[in-house]
Amino acid sequence: DIDDAGLLGDLLTLLPVTETDMTIFYRLLAGVEASTEDALAVVWPCFYQPTEVVGDIRERWLHWLDRYQGRLRMESRSAAERRAAMQAVNPKYVLRNYMAQLAIDAAEQGDFSVVAELNEVLQHPYAEQPEHQRWFERRPEWARHRVGCSMLSCSS
Predict the structure, then answer these.
(1) Less crowded by CB within 10 Å, the N or C end of the chain?
(2) Which tens digits make up the pLDDT trace of 10-50?
(3) Can you say whether residue 135 is alpha, beta or left, with left for phi > 0 and alpha for psi between -120 and 50 degrees?
């Protein structure tokens, strides 16, 4: 029998071990099935430094995902119902600082198309919107250290 609180607690301990995009992680986790052979590959795009997910860290992820898949085998809902329920509470699209900066930069040049596109995408943050897949990606490396893109303070 799998303890949900323990499973969640272990996940919350594991997530900060390597830099992880939480929005992407939780959205992709919905795609892990009880029978998924390589569950780590499903969530792999959420890691900012995938080269860190080796050795002990990789083993910890594999162990957690194995336990998670064990929990999935206990589900009374179908895989499709569970995935839909998870996707209904884990948005695919969220406004990130670098996205706002891209919109600001374009608007300062008189181009409001990025503002319009983000406005369109963010009206339905839980929808798949494959035409807007570029907004479902980790923060680009250029934004890591650019003022206003990495993180904002309360006064930003």
Answers:
(1) N
(2) 999 999 999 999 999 999 999 999 999 999 999 999 999 99
(3) alpha
